[in-house]
Fold these 2 entries.
Entry 1:
Amino acid sequence: MQNTIHFSNIFLPLLYLATLIVYLYDFVKGEKKLIHSKRLFLFLTLVFHTFYLIIRTIEFDHPPITNVFEIFTVLACAIGFAYFILELITDIRGTGLFILIIAFLFQAISSVFIKDLIEVKEILRSNLLGAHVLNALLGYAGITISAIYGFLYLALYKEIKTNKFGLIFDRLPNLEILEKLSFSSAVIGFIALTIAMVIGIIWLPQAFPDFSYADPKLIVTSIVWLMYGIGIILKTTGQWRGKKVVVLSIVGFLLSIFSTIITNFISRSFHSFY
Amino acid sequence: MNFLAVSINHKTAPVEVREALHLNKDEIKNYIDELKNNVFTEGFIISTCNRTEIYGIPVKPEINYLDLEKYLIDKKPTVEIKGDQFQKFFSCSAVNHLFRVSAGIDSLLLGDNQILGQVKESFLIAEEKYFVGFLLKRLFDAAAVVGKRAKSETQISDGAITVSYAAVQLIEKIFSNLSKKTALVIGAGETGEIAAKHLRDKGIGRLVITNRTYERAEKVAEAVDARILPFSHFKENLHDFDIVISATSSNDVILTKDDIKKMMKKRNFASTVLMDIAVPRDIDPAARDIDNVFYHDIDSLNIIVEQNLKKRKEELPKVEKIILEELINFFSWYNSLEIAPTIKSLRDFFEDIRADEVQKMINKFSADDREKVDIITKRIINKLLHQPTVELRKAADAGINTPESIAKIGILRDLFGIDKQKENNNI
């Protein structure tokens, strides 16, 4: 089984890359012939990814959520699935390339650094932790997709404002749709993050009796959560719109990435698992 | 294939000539009445603002382009028309020309997607006047296939190539649902009217027109089902509109950056499109610096038009490939209409069925009877095919590919599905 896992670990980023190339070709050429096959490519990649996660869970006797590189592969899969469902529901096909770049990067990093971890700390074998991580992943997938749509909004906004009508102008959906996609993803991400935080706060005192509320991960996550919360209220009440909302989404995403890097590789947080 | 066509179009003649030769529906019908049986056995006439073309199968081989040219010139003697202003096509080149027209690559606006509808309408008029036979019906079907394939398989008709349509394309890149948007058109001249029509066609939610001359505004508003806003009040109401298209003949700026700033504040900076398609411009270009204001003038719209035109030109080889494929298909079909191959195909078709059925049942007969069964069934087939074979030979004696023989052969092939049978055998 381990040989299959090792093979899948190398094959999976290649599969994402192949899917990405198909999406790139379609985006650049704009021909209609790949319109269905690119979706099939993505579907097969996601099926294979699910198979990989299942055999990994069975072989190493724990779901792959116990360190950052395990989480990256689940995150890649979550982003891919989220986009796949979004494409099916909305039938907006011009944005897949940009979302799948992120899924590919997460998977590539995971594949390079992931280890065959059999021994897992007892503390990480908790159902509450499972629910916490699941929601956090959904939340991160949501805000990642929101930020990508935010970037695309800004790119198209700039092209239209400066009269540069290139590929972005030709292929992307209109600004209103991009704003809507960014906002909807942010709302889903925000709800999932809220649930993850609530579960985390319940679970924390049980798992780490000596934790501190001044932990950098807690502080940055709270700031990010507040930012999204304020942004969502301002947008819903019509006080903020367009560029301002998407910029807030992008800043929130960058802060979350920053907080993950800080907590996992630099600072000594209870959230560092690697 | 004895098929003639003459065309006078935007490439060969100035607008005055094209206008003079333009035929309305009734004129086309009258022309057909005169052409029918005197000049052509079957045919059709296409007449749009950019072309007048006559296609047909001559009643006798002596009829040529000069007769058609003379015919048109005599009927419309109001302007001087020179012979070299006519394009002339015969046989394959005439079919090729019709295919190019149907695909929109012979149009003034490359990739024009209205022309296929106009070709179809011309054909329907001819059909209504019983001027279309078996051959031209098949030809029209092939032309329709070319037009549809060009549109669906290439990008020859994609993107706006007129300024007013480019403005609408740009608006659609900003807003997703125009039925929920409001638009103000300032200026009720020709440009303003075209822009208003495009917005109406795209299903704009609320359309309002303002103009210095109220009567003119009224006229345009009625044509496009819009409301009117008095010119003296439009600035106070500017914030009500998501889209403002300005096309006045004013020599001065009518909307300053300050006007736009005030409007945006009142709109709480909701996205606003300002399309200034007037020359000289009506809106201060500095308005483009304001957040969520999408200001575009005629120059920026021309960029879109030129880019789209370039892309359409790049699609030409793909369309020409489609035309070539459909020309081959059409002439393969046409060549199959020869008498001798048809008789052979028909006999082969019946013989295959006979042999197949005899083979299936042969074991039910005694060894002595088998030969008799074979002879009897062959006799039945020969008797069944005797009369059709005689009729086909008679048609052949009347000349090569006469309308009568084409109709007979075509119907025969269609009824028995001989071509389909061949295709299946080839697969």
Entry 2:
Amino acid sequence: MKKTTGIVTGIISNLVTVEFDGHVAENEICYIDLGGVRLMAEVIKVTGKNAFVQVFESTRGLRQGNKVEFDGHMLEATLGPGLLSSSYDGLQNNLETMEDVFLKRGEYTSPLDHDKLWEFTPIAKPGDKVQAADWLGEVKEGWLPHKIMVPFSFKGEYTVKSVVAAGEYKIDDTIAVLIDAQGDEVPVTMVQKWPVKVAIGGYVDKPRPYRIMETGVRTIDTLNPIAEGGTGFIPGPFGCGKTVLQHAIAKQGDAEVIVMAACGERANEVVEIFKEFPELVDPHTGRMLMERTAIICNTSNMPVAAREASVYTAMTICEYYRAMGLKVLLLADSTSRWAQALREMSNRMEELPGADAFPVDLSAIISNFYARAGIVNLRNGKTGSVTFIGTVSPAGGNLKEPVTESTKKAARCFYALAQARADSKRYPAVDPLDSYSKYLEYPEIVDYLNQRVDPHWVEKVFKAKNLVRRGKEMAEQINILGDDGVPISYHEAFWKSELVDFVILQQDAFDKIDCVTPMDRQEFMLTEVLNVCDMEFNFENFEDCRNFYKEIINAFKQMNYSEYKSEQFYKYFEQVKNLLSNGNN
Amino acid sequence: MATTNAYRRIYTQLEAITKATVTLKASGVSNDELATVAGRAAQVVKIKGDLITLQVFAGTEGIPTDAEVIFQGEPPTLNVSDELAGRFFNAYGEPIDDGPAVEGERRQIGGPSVNPYKREQPSQLIPTGIAGIDLNNTLVSGQKIPFFADPDQPYNQVMAQVALRADVDKIILGGMGLSNDDYLYFRQAFENAGALNRIVSFVNTTDEPPVERLLVPDMALTAAEYFAVDKNEKVLVLLTDMTLYADALSIVSNRMDQIPSKDSMPGSLYSDLAKIYEKAVQLPSGGSITIIAVTTLNDGDITHAIPDNTGYITEGQLFLRTDTDTGKVIVDPFRSLSRLKQLVINKQTREDHSQVMNTAVRLYADASNAKTKLENGFDLSDYDLRCLDYAKEYSNRLLAIDVNISINEMLDTAWELFAKYFTKAETGLRDSLIAKYWKDNN
């Protein structure tokens, strides 16, 4: 088939107008020939014979009359074994295999290793009836069973004619032959392509999330848990610890596959991931963290249009692993940069702007993207999930801005990072009162938690929240009226909230032990803290009250720093008990 | 502007003129290409069919419709070689120090980005002698960090000081909207220090058209990349004042009828600033580019689009403020932050660095609480009073920007203050460190 071609007729920054012959499709990929260098671009608008394309590279030196060739398909991700432990740019070029220190324009590298041999084990048998996303076989990718599936683009039912015997194969080798409804033979390899802006289907249904994804971060798991297959976002001004929190979740999250999309952020932060992750061990499996991680990175100085593509590429890779029945976690830092990329483009297209000059359909675009997360039931009875946590960088730290507001509508968990908490070094700086998890309202999640953790767990969580709320009110009163101007009970309420804050909410991300707290340990600590809060003490004055709670807090904190249920742990626990019995006298 | 290119295309009919741009019919023109319009430098910013729009850096006042337009055939370039050292240039890279033009390889400015996978993690401490920086907000080579300062603060002096004390091979100054006085100050400071041979300056002063400033960072960074990449040198880039740079961006976007976003800044402000700051890099070959910038604030307001976007891009910020107790300019320990400091603290500095730093700042915070108590009319405890005395001395001997001592001296000074005003328990320092460093007054 002859490809559609065209010539460049206009240029404003990375928005290029192309006059074409034949037909083009919205979001179709094209390449602009600039003296032998081919620049990739995507069609974003068509009027008459003119296509507006956004170029994924710098357009410097481009001129009117440059030749353009349309590719006949949308921006696609290449899916197959070898995605994990790779580092890609937003268009899924492998950054590791590029030779130069500087990124060269028009240099596109293959996402997967075509020469590597994979140990293949068949699953499907000749005669099986299969559909898109059904499993034909598997290879071991690190320690994960990577399923080789019927390509997602296949429509209708196929009959398996043959599957190769167990053995070593390259990704481009034919591993199965299927017969379609017309009786034609279709070969299948280990690699397939899928347009990133289209959600991958092939599952039976997407139920409401009904279980929790543990992160090891107490202020999330205990106070505002995120569901497996759920969505959450972390807005916060700069310097509040957004990135540290995201990295902590990436290191500890109870997922089998982690995809990190570094979208328009600092290159040195990505370097930290590149240098540190290969040395870190996954706390759940004891394997190297990098083995379960893929990184999609479009740092702030890389081409803006590819920034938008990067989050879609990352999501597509997540959906691919979900279809294998795996638990996948996607972290995107930061979705604001992606929204800004949309704004830059909309502005160049001279569209009528919405609030803060963002495109009017920003909210719809964000909702649409968050909707791609979820837990799904596969046709073979297994489940897979994509949990998505995005960060938002609100301009001026003001949460009343379009990206935060649009995201709030789409995400079910909200982890607000508070400048005041960061200033007083109370990390993670997640505000316990402004933040919420809608999943605590789901009866199925409440049942799950009460069964999994403790029969009265959710009740306890709300009790802890209430203590914090009361403590905050009391603190305001004390500030206004002075330490002596309020009854002792005000001080007690305030210090109970401090106890919850210091022992449960605050967590040292840089301490080897404190950085990750498993659920049973969280249950133990919250129960003990609430026990203390239930006790009655008769303090002489507010100073007694303060000193007493300071000592209790200190002993509890030492417990947090000790190996769970170790001798040291119980030593400090004894200390807590002693303090309590003295306090009661 | 002089050019060595033989091939030129000349046009003499303008179709449209605005305050900052001219439009004409031309062919074979490439995006970002440089041109002159009636002798003034201009750059291609828009191509629509055969209509070419040029941004005229110096403004279009007095330009007639029959002005001569000459296309240069390439984007702005800089000749790079070791001859750059010790020289002063304008925004176009032309000498302003009466010296000869620089011979060297012609390089396009605003070149490609470093592959993030090929970067090294920054790991070399850059000492400055200023405790507010070295002790509390340590600088690391390959870092990018701005001073946030009100216009009345001596940020250019502090920056010159930092640059001259820093142990680097080259210092590149990018001056945007510098007043002539400040330009002469830098020149004199560099000459007096006898450091001219390791300094390259690109300067746009307030006498010159503001839009020209847009070229300065790219010029400075192209020179920086030459020394860091080609020569494996440690390069420090000073950019002052980035707020004026951003103002120039907003002027251009406004003239081009773009829809402004927050604070009348262009929607692309984040990407525009990131492109500059992300040039800071630690290269695998050993060379590095460190960027120290100045972002002037309006009455300390960091929520304005310029400091706000900057904060999201840079690795921390150094906040200058006048301390009311001592009357000295200090580096504010609360609002300043160096995100990369943990890469060198206790690794390239003494084992007590991290604890001493945190304790000193915490006690300073206690002093500020005591002050609030005092202002609200509450009684002060003995501890509060000692905190206040400590704060004064801490501010005077460590936070003030006129301090110039080694990091070990800073640590020793802090230990001396701890012992002078507090008990060991009040400092909450680790026992092993107290045993080793506590300075008994008796």
